[in-house]
Amino acid sequence: MPHQPPDRPPNLVLKDGRALLTKPENRETPRLFIAATRQNEGKTTTCLGLFGALQTCFSHVAYIKPIGQRFVDVDGIKIDEDSFLLNSIYPVDAPLEAMSPIAIDSDFTRRYLGNPENHRKLLVDRICRAFDRTACNRDLVIIEGSGHAGVGAVFDMSNAEVARILGAKAVIISSGGIGRPVDEIALNKSLFDKFGVEVVGAILNKVHPEKLDLVKEFAGLGLRRLGVPLLGVLPVDDQLSAPNLTQIVAELQGRWLNGFNTGVSRRVRHVVVGAMTARGIMDYFQEGMLIITPGDRDDVILAALASCGPGGDRMISGIILTRNILPHPRLMEMLAQTDIPVVISGEESYTVASKIHGMTVKTQPQDSDKIPLIRKMILEHIDLEQLQQTVETQ
């Protein structure tokens, strides 16, 4: 049986004689738990940036997402997609299964509630052992949560509880503003406080550049009254929120017709619906533009061909053909001579445009152009020295 620290309560013992952990064996390596006030606040993007930027302060940084709700299959193992993403970008030098010990599938909660006592002990043990593996010989561990402080409470593994188990201090991320983020950070802090987890800072994300100073001053004052330091304010960046064509095709469940090899990573910054004349639409042509048009609008497609030419100078990012209408065969031949990405969808043009507008854009492993921007943003706008001092006082 492994050595047990004297403060550990009695453990459940498995059939193989192994005692279940209730706390990580590693109590020394500094650790930060990154939470958010709600979904899609930029938590994963911030973790990506912090992982890179904090290597200027710590020689060896580790990462773990103890509980993941969206996963990919890697060699038959369910791996949280954010763990997979970070491992694809950085040389993490840790087993993927340790970076993502628990993946929540559709039946997980029902299985748990059928036998919560034993399930909880097994979950805690798995999280603790995974943490010890990722933290080995590291100077800092970034622990990414799965949403706000209460996410996971239904199976007794809220973010606040996981942070408590791992002995981590918490940083809370919220989207920009003054009143709403301070209110929501206060709400999340109350649950972390209940579990004895110290909230050592907040980061406000997606703030319009012209409002950075205003938000920093007054949100900083509001947070200070809560006892939460404002570690930084991150500006909104159009390139980070711009989807690539691969993401759009997945959202639309579309089908590639042309330009797959060159189009998968093209960034879409502007969308125009080809409901006007060809002469009118040409006034909108600009780099990063996506054209949405039915396949029988030969004039619009010809205008796109004329804009890009046979060599494809990438004036536009692609064409979405709607209502499953294919262009005239001769036009298809002309498109095939270019590298213009062309995708077909069964939806109406308005529906396609609405879906693209409402997309939640997450960083993907192929988004190599985003990673330097994210790291630069963290370096420029987050007080890493204050964060380092906070971590080193654990």
Strand order of the largest sheet: 2-7-1-8-9-10
Shape field: globular
Low confidence ranges? 1-11
Helix proportion range: 40-55%
Radius of gyration: 24 Å
Could you tell me the CATH topology label of the largest domain: Rossmann fold
List the helices and strands and how they pair.
Blueprint: E1 31-36, H1 43-53, E2 61-64, E3 67-68, E4 71-74, E5 77-80, H2 81-89, H3 96-99, E6 102-103, H4 108-114, H5 116-135, E7 140-144, H6 159-166, E8 169-175, H7 179-194, E9 199-207, H8 212-226, E10 230-235, H9 238-241, H10 245-252, E11 255-258, H11 260-263, E12 270-273, H12 278-282, E13 289-294, H13 298-308, E14 316-322, H14 329-336, E15 342-344, H15 349-357, H16 370-381, H17 384-392
Parallel strand pairs: 1-7, 1-8, 2-7, 3-6, 8-9, 9-10, 12-13, 13-14, 14-15
Antiparallel strand pairs: 4-5, 11-15
Helix pairs in contact: 1-16, 6-7, 7-8
Give me a quick take on this structure.
By secondary structure, the protein is α/β, with parallel strands linked by helices. It has 2 domains: 31-237 and 368-392, Rossmann fold; 243-357, HprK N-terminal domain-like (Udp-n-acetylmuramoylalanyl-d-glutamate--2,6- Diaminopimelate Ligase, Chain: A, domain 1, 3-Layer(aba) Sandwich). It has helices spanning 43-53, 81-89, 96-99, 108-114, 116-135, 159-166, 179-194, 212-226, 238-241, 245-252, 260-263, 278-282, 298-308, 329-336, 349-357, 370-381, 384-392; strands at 31-36, 61-64, 67-68, 71-74, 77-80, 102-103, 140-144, 169-175, 199-207, 230-235, 255-258, 270-273, 289-294, 316-322, 342-344.
